[in-house]
Amino acid sequence: MANPPYRARPSDRADRILAQVEAARGEIVAFTADMIRIPTVNPPGESYRDCAELIGRRLGEAGFDVEYVEPEGLPEHTAAHPRVNVIGRGVGEGAGKRIHLNGHFDVVPAGDGWSVDPFGGLVKDGRIYGRGASDMKSGIAAAVFAVEAIRRAGIDLRGAVDVSGTVDEESGGFAGVAHLCRTGSVTGDNTDYAIIPEPFGPDRVCVGHRGVYWFDVVARGHAAHGSMPHLGRSAIDDMGAVLEAFRTRVGPRLAALRSSLPVVPGHSRRPSLNVNAIEGGQAGETDQTPCVADRCTATFDRRFIPEESLDDVREEVMDAVARVAAEDPGRSLSVVDRLVVHPVRTPPGSPVVAALSNAIRAVRGHDATLVASPGTYDQKHFARIGGIEHCVAYGPGPLAEAHQPDESCGVDDLVACTQVLALAVLELAGLDAG
Ligand SMILES: [Zn+2]
Question: ∠ CA 339-299-179 to the nearest 5 degrees?
Fold first, then answer.
C-alpha cells in the first residue's frame, strides 16, 4: 500500500499565518516587481539608494525600526555609486532567539537575449520576469512578507526578527553583508540565526558552499620580430604548457574527488579548475605589429571542497607551475594570488535547518532536500566575520535562471517560500533565549 502524502497538521497560529501570506499574494508580487523596476545593476552599483529606500519604506510600514548603513571609507562607496544597505530591526520582547533575514538587492547586468524588458517587472502567466526576479528580489519580498504575515496574524514573537537588504553580493559583498558583520551591526552577539533567501526553490535548504581560490599565472618571454620568432621567447607558448599541465595533471585528480557536502548540481561535488581569462601579446582589436609576445597572464578559478585545505590547493598549483618551468630552463612563470574564500558549512543538527525542514513539511507536504551551492554567497560573511554559524540559504526562484536572460520566478513558488519562511521564523523565535 502506498503511503498517503505526509502533511503535518499546522497549529491554529500556523494556519492564521499561512492564510495571511495567501491573502498578501498580490502585494508580494507587486513589491517584487517594484524592486525589479529599479535597475540595481552591479557593476557599477546603480540606483542602490532608490532600492534601499523602497525596501526601507516597506519595512517601516511593517513596524520595523529602519536604519540605513553606508560603508564610509570603502573605495567602492562613491558619490556616483553610493553603497546603501537597509536594516529593519524587529521589535521583540527579547525573551527568545533573534533571527536575521537578509537578501542582496544588487543584480548582474541584463546582458543580451531577453524577450521581455529586463527591468519592466512583467507579471505574466503566473511568473514574474526581470533581472533579479530569481536572484534575489523575490527572496527579499518573501522575507519581508513572512514577518508581515506573522504580524497581521496578530502573533507576538518571543524572540525578534530583523530583515536587511544589502548591496554588492555579486561582487563579493564587502560593502554589504561583510560591512554589517565587521562593524557589529549583525554578529553572533546580537543574532542567533540567519536565513538568506537565495533562489534554491521552495523545497531545498542550502547548508553551505565550496571554497574559491583565484590566482593569476604570469609568463614572461622575450620580444622579437615576428618574422624571426626563434630569436625571442613566446610567453603565450609558455602559458600553453601551463594550461596543458593543469588539464592533464591536475584535472584528472580533481575529477576523482567527491565532497560529502551535498553540492548541486552533482557534478560540482568535485573540485574544479577553470581558466577565466587569458591576456598576452598585443591587444587583439588594435592594429598588429609583428612581435613575439613577451608577456602573458591567465586568471584561474579553482573551486575547492571542505575536504581540501587551502594550503594543499595552493601547493598543488605552485608545484604544477614549478614543474612546467623546470621542463625548460628558459621559462619564467610566477603565480599571484587574487582571492580566497573558504568553504562554509552549517553545523549538523542546526536548529535553523530543523525549523525550515519542519516548515517545508507543513507547507509542501514532503521532506526538504539539503543542498550546498557550487558558488559562494553571503553565508561566508555571516559565518566567518559575523560568527553566525547557524546560517542557511532558503528562498524562491529557480537557481538555474539566475544571471540568465528572461530570468523569472513562479508566483506560487514565491508564496510557498514566504509561507515556509514565516513558519520557520515562528518556530525559531519561539525558542528560549540563551
Ligand atoms: Zn544571489
Answer: 25
pTM of the full predicted structure?
A: 0.89
Domain membership of residue 5 (yes or no) is no
Distance CA 266, CA 263 (A): 6
Same domain, 335 and 353: no
If you measure from the C-alpha of residue 331 to the centroid of ligand 1, how many angstroms do you get, rounded to a whole number?
Answer: 41
Instruction: Give the residue-averaged pLDDT of 179-192.
Output: 96
Please tell me the distance between residue 221's alpha carbon and the centre of ligand 1 in angstroms. 41
293: domain CATH number? 3.30.70.360
Question: Are 29 and 177 found together in one domain?
Answer: yes
| Pair (353, 309) in one structural domain | no
**pLDDT tens digits along 319-343:** 999 999 999 999 999 999 999 999 9
Q: For residue 423, give the nearest of 402, 397, 394 by alpha carbon.
A: 394
**How do beta strands 295-304 and 272-280 pair?**
antiparallel
Residue 301 belongs to domain spanning: 211-341
End-of-domain residue from the set 324, 341, 358: 341
Q: State whether 156 and 243 are in the same domain.
A: no
C-alpha of residue 135 to centroid of ligand 1, in Å: 5
Residues 155 and 264 in one domain: no
Cβ neighbours of 225 (radius 10 Å): 12
Query: d(Cα 122, Cα 133) in Å, to the nearest integer?
Result: 10
In angstroms, what is the span from residue 165 Cα to ligand 1's centroid? 12
What values do phi and psi take at 163, rounded to 5?
A: -130, 130
Beta bridge partners of 14: none
Separation of CA 105 and ligand 1 centre (Å): 8
Whether 2 maps to a domain, the answer reads no
- How far, in Å, is the centroid of ligand 1 from the Cα of 399? 9
